[in-house]
Amino acid sequence: MSIYYLVASLSMLEFGSKPPLSSKELLKDCERLLPDGDYRKIVRAMSDDDEERPGDGDTLLRWKRFSHNFRNELAWLRAVEANRDPSEYLRGERAGEPEVVDALAEAVKAADPLSAEQILDQMLWKKIDELAAQHYFDIDFLITYALKLKILERYQAVGSPAGEKIFEKIKEGVLDL
User: Fold this and answer.
1) What is d(CA 72, CA 80) in angstroms, rounded to the nearest whole number?
2) Mean pLDDT of 98-119
3) What are the C-alpha distances in Å from 8 to residues 4, 20, 24?
4) Residue of 24, 81, 94, 177 with fewest CB within 10 Å of its CB?
5) What is the C-alpha separation between 70 and 158, in angstroms, rounded?
6) Which of 126, 129, 110, 125 is nearest to 155 (CA)?
């Protein structure tokens, strides 16, 4: 019954919008209202660990596989651009998922790094939407909600005063080259 209350209390998330709550707040509510196993799934979904584990459930497993493949494709592209052997940077097999390859090709052509990130994050958001299909008041909905919240928080950090300072330092370093 608590999962219904939690899901009903959450605001809708839209790509590019301000997050209605922090991931810490979401995790705090999940810890308070969900069984421990479900809470741990939310924590795992929000972690950068893409290793599959028993008991992850279908949605989390599919996300971890997709995330792993995405990171491999990104590593491959970066290695090729740096004139290095891409196979040294892969973790496991390269899947070559068409949607990832296409998004990376489009991101490479972007006018600036932020635009490139947005292209990739929109692709990730679309994948999360696919995973969320037919899930409304269950743990899979909360997993996909947490994943989207994580994306929105990154953009909020970029637009913050601290994020602007970091960007200025990076820009100065690049211009000094």
Assistant:
1) 12
2) 89
3) 6, 14, 18
4) 177
5) 22
6) 125
The residues, any chain, with a CB within 8 Å of residue 72's CB and separated by 6 or more, are 90, 91, 92, 93, 94, 95
Average pLDDT (54-78) is 91
Sign of the Cα pseudo-torsion (97, 101, 103, 104, in order)? positive
CA 72, 75, 80, 85 torsion: positive or negative?
negative
17 CB-near residues (< 8 Å, 6+ apart): 152
Region 52-61 average pLDDT: 89
Which residues contact residue 138 at a Cβ distance below 8 angstroms, ignoring those fewer than 6 apart?
3
- Tell me how far apart the alpha carbons of residues 118 and 125 are, in angstroms, rounded to a whole number: 10
CB atoms within 10 A of CB 113: 12
Q: How far apart are CA 116 and CA 134, in angstroms?
A: 30
CB 110, CB 87: distance < 8 Å: no
